[in-house]
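Let's do one together. I've listed all components of the complex below, 737 residues spread over two lines.
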Amino acid sequence: MYGIVRKEQLAPNTKLFEITAPAVAAKSKPGQFVILRIHEKGERFPITIADADPEKGTVTIIFAEVGKSSTQLGKLEVDDAILNFSGPLGNATKIEKFGEILCVGGGVMAGALLYQMKALKKAGNKITAIIGARNKEHLILIEEIRKFSDELYVATDDGSEGKEGIYFLKDILEKKFDQAITIGPTSMQMIVSEMTRPYGIPTTVNLFPIMVDGTGMCGACRVTVGDETRFACVHGPEFDGHKVNYDELISRMRFYNPNEKIAMLLFDGV
Amino acid sequence: MTIAHKKPQTEMPKQSIEKRIHNFDEVALGFDEELALEEASRCLNCPKPQCKKGCPVEVPIPEFIQLVKEHRFGEAASKIKEKNALPAVCGRVCPQEEQCQKFCVLGVRGDPVGIGRLERFTSDWERLNVKTKAQKIEQTGGRVAIVGSGPAGLTVAADLAKLGHRVTIFESLHTAGGVLMYGIPQFRLPKEIVQTEVEYVKSLGVELRLDSTVGLLSTIQELKQNGYDAVFIGSGAGLPNFLKIPGENLKGIYSANEFLIRTNLMKAYKFPEYDTPIRVSKKVGVVGAGNVAMDSARCALRLGAERVYIIYRRSRDEMPARAEEAENAEEEGIEFMLLTNPVRFIGNDRGFLEKIECVKQQLSEPDKSGRRRPEPIVGSNFTIEIDTAVVAIGQSPNPIIQQTTEGLEATRHGTIVVNEETMQTSILGVYAGGDVVSGAATVISAMGAGKKAAKAIHEHIMTKKAA
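Okay, and this is what the predicted structure of the assembly comes out as:
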């Protein structure tokens, strides 16, 4: 069992948990994820690591309450425990001195992006960050992200804060970037990749398709990258954003939507 | 009783076909005491028992059967456990016809003794009548780390714990048992039975650490640095193979691993009581004809499919599945489409699988492996309507440990290279066995490899301690 030592509500339906898991904390690196299971009848589901403190022995996750499992997770309180917390899984982000980096984070993934930015900044990069969310209420961690950004742009889908939408990125891309990194909703990562393509900026996306075991066994997380089928859990979760087949990925991510609706309806009924 | 051995093998009761295709309860029901005594009485207790030759884990077969004959069922179970930590598993899933029973002298003229069925009876009797107690074993001071709690890892753990070594098993998933939990379905191997076997191994003093993916959480080198005298890698088969044909990522296409993990380990057949979903529609095509394919097909049926096809590119004679498993599947109404090779999956405009296009095949002359190679018949393409497909054509080793362990020699297929006698890898004190060495094989061959490794690890530690 893995105890919750800190809980924060960051935005509507968005929670931060700091969890005691010393072995995981000792090994976690930006870009990796954990797989959780809350109770004996629960499903296994992945969450990207948003921070780790090896000295305290804790791992931080930030998640949106969208389905039954994440909603159940959100209902846990400090001193409650999570049944299974397996990680770190997946490959870590490549941290090196690229030069000028564009970092684009959306929604709850701002936390995972911040974790990467801290390491990238330490490696001597200049970072232009764009943080987006549905609306003003859903923007998270802006002040922390500002500390690690040389330039920061805030955007919302409805324009309630900062820029409206993501297409203003076109103007920013006029500046020369050596590397782009994006993490957030798949459709956002797709748009960012499409926009960086004409500029020839190497672009890393961070994919989270459906997973079960998270260690390469099931193949549920397969993604077409270039001509190859790759498993996000063992070959990723980061891939070349210019080579991913997003239509297929987005379609596959929705496969269990009807089942999730049933689970959620019954859960609400309880 | 003198002519008991001339009788045919005692039949084991099974759930009726009509009933069993609608539930996940065990198909084979096992012997009661009367049937067990009847079957045990067929054993001649040969002076030179041949059956033992066929058992990779050296079960004292005539000895335990003799105890069954004498109604000493608990002692019979203990007798088996001297050599085999997982008898309730082996009694159910071993291919006895290829092993112990193949060598039984009664088999020359008639039916061999039903050794597997007796092993199963004995261990089931013990589970129901004897409480597992923690055992006190004198310690050697040796420490061993085991990667993976499947049949190989559990065997190594039990053997070494009995010899007095302190053993820790690192398991990546949230439950111990490996393929016994995630792969083999409930109706062939109930999960409660696997857990009883795991509890027995724990009762020997073995420590179990779940949620621990070695390679990522700790590396093999770190385990060695942290005071383990030896490490055994039994991480199993890994990444599922796909057909590499168009349309394979359409919605509705599962690897057998995913299909079985959802169904067995995560109990998706009890959705929404259990949270993990699975989507099985009316018509299911399973590609492949090994035991995993049969398991997948029979799961699909129980999950509510109306028609389930086994699609296999060779003929019946080449099917890798145990004859018994293929028969069970056929009895249940699984349709075999043999000499049929998939060429592409066809989906609708929303990305859901609708059909599979196949080509008819014919067999050529036998190749080097002795199997007759299938060749497509030009122009024989046809489609089958299916809305779920399960690809059950084997696995490639998981790369995590190989990638994170410097100096660990692997084949070009990714399996770990070992000394066949000792199961030691290219690194001193690091051993491996089971599917990660052999590629996908059987539970019992993994256990056999585990047994060999345990002997070598014991020697390695005792030599080290003496020095």
